[in-house]
TrEMBL record:
A Pfam family annotated for this UniProt entry: SPOR
Coiled coil: none
Signal as UniProt keyword: yes
Protein name, entry field: SPOR domain-containing protein
Length: 129
């Protein structure tokens, strides 16, 4: 290993210090021109989103098991009941197929009876409060 003498160290450190003093971050001001209606739309959307609650709807679980079977079950369900939404939820260790987004229990139970004709192990999921 080669040891530098103090004079050589100064010759190396001094240019490095002068270079670092000249480095500056970007100093730019950005002016954003925005339509005032945009802010109004955002406020309206915020009001609507606070009034929508996703947990106060009834759902129907039609399957619980392996991933491939859950995908097949959801695909078959969407083919048979194209007016009802469905999704797959992973809850360790099973994949669950949950369908519907019913606001009232009566509406959910009516659909439950129709779905029960095609799928055997179905049950109603109450909203969590």
């Amino acid at each position: 290993m080669r040891i530098l003498t103090p004079s050589k160290k100064i010759l190396l450190v001094f240019p490095m210090l002068t270079l670092t003093l000249n480095i500056n971050a970007q100093d730019q001001n950005i002016t954003l021109n925005q339509d005032p209606k945009f802010e109004q739309l955002l406020n309206d959307k915020r009001k609507i989103n606070t009034s929508i609650s996703t947990n106060d709807t009834y759902k129907i679980q039609i399957f619980s098991g392996k991933s491939d079977e859950a995908k097949k079950t959801l695909s078959n369900f969407k083919r048979e009941f194209n007016n009802i939404d469905g999704t797959i939820i992973f809850n360790t260790p099973n994949y669950k197929v949950v369908v519907g987004n019913f606001k009232t229990r009566i509406e959910a139970e009516r659909n439950l009876e129709e779905i029960r004709k095609k799928y055997k192990s179905v049950f109603l999921i109450k909203p969590s409060k």
